[in-house]
Amino acid sequence: MQIRCEHCGADIDGSLKYCTNCGAPLPPSSQGSGGQTGPRREPETIEELRQWYIDHHLPPEETTRFFIGKDITERRAFGIYREQDGEFVVYKNKNDGSRAVRYKGPDEKFAVTELLSRLKEEIRSQKSRSSSRIGPTRSTRRASKGSELAAVIMMVGIALFVIVMLIMVITDKSPTRGYYRYNDTDYYYQDTSWYYYDMNYGSWYPAVGSLIPDMGEDYDDYRVYDHRGSDFEDSDYYHESDSDSNSDDYSWDGGDSWDAGGMDFDSDW
């Protein structure tokens, strides 16, 4: 069955691994699936995550500071790897050289999702910073002092805006997408809504009224990785977030520069 290459627009055989017109790799969903097309499946293994990284034309790992399949010991690094005992580790090496382990366990899909979510967050942040950067405003040495002052004021304003945004992110205590356990009940948070797992019926249901968990502001204290029952991702209520719906949002423009100096390596994650 014919599909359209998302890179050059050419109509090609959907069973191929690479476009015969431009040579770009085809999405995994088009290979070995009888030619059926659809949304590109998110990576679930370390190898698939490594390919996702390549397909989105991201800079070298030494530039982005995201290391896939590697246990990097130097400071200022995010990473995922598999230990000899089979467990998967998602980590962050902080500015002071200490390591914060985000996840350690047997669930490779969950581990990959954790690092991918953080990588996507950093891509959005890098793109935002890149679009807001302001280059030199003087084209010649004869530029007026008024122009220089205006540029300085603008740069100070941008710096203050960035500081305020960072403070908001650091102090934000709202729950994030994922599993929580409260009063011996498993919950899932998605797009400002809570869902709970009913052990008696073996299904997920929307949490409304008194069923909404009252965790206060310490949501991280209730975040879990070893949820019980079926995966919420397999329920009818789960859907990809709007920010994740278009994989092109995370493709990196080779003309942009990745500034690892602005990344947060002081917090645990």
Distance between the termini: 44 Å
Determine the strand fraction and express it as a percent band. 15-25%
Largest sheet: 4 strands, mixed
- Written as H for each helix and E for each strand, in order along the chain, the element string is EEHHEEEEHHEEEE
Oligomer: single chain
SSE class: alpha+beta
Number of helices: 4
Number of strands: 10
Quickly count the domains: 4
C-alpha-based Rg, rounded: 22 Å
**Low-confidence runs:** 29-39, 242-247
Across the major sheet, the strand order is 3-4-5-6
Q: Write down the overall mean pLDDT.
A: 83
Shape: globular
The share of residues in helices is 10-25%
List the helices and strands and how they pair.
Elements: E1 2-4, E2 11-13, H1 46-55, H2 61-64, E3 66-68, E4 77-82, E5 88-93, E6 99-105, H3 108-132, H4 145-171, E7 178-182, E8 185-190, E9 193-198, E10 203-206
Parallel strand pairs: 3-4
Antiparallel strand pairs: 1-2, 4-5, 5-6, 7-8, 8-9, 9-10
Give your account of this protein's structure.
By secondary structure, this protein is an alpha+beta fold. It has four domains: 1-41, no CATH class; 42-133, no CATH class; 136-171, no CATH class; 173-254, no CATH class. The chain contains four helices and ten strands, in the order ββααββββααββββ. The chain has helices at 46-55, 61-64, 108-132, 145-171; strands at 2-4, 11-13, 66-68, 77-82, 88-93, 99-105, 178-182, 185-190, 193-198, 203-206. Strands 3-4-5-6 form a four-stranded mixed beta sheet. The radius of gyration is 22 Å and the shape is globular. The two termini are 44 Å apart.
